[in-house]
Amino acid sequence: MQLLFFVVLYPIFWFISILPFRLLYILSDGIYLLIYYVLGYRKKTVRNNLALALPHLSEKERLVIEKKSFQHLCDMFLEMIKTMSISKKEIEKRFVFTNMDLYHNEEKKGKSIALMIAHYASYEWVISMNHYITFGGYAIYKRIKNKHFDKLVKDIRSKFKAYLITTKETKHVIENNEKKGVLGIYGFASDQSPRPTENMYWYQFMGIETPIHIGAELLAKRYDMNVLFLKVKKVKRGYYEGTFEVLTNDVRSIPDFKLSEQFMDKVEQQILEAPEFYLWTHKRWKHKRKD
Question: What is the pTM of this model?
Answer without folding.
Answer: 0.93
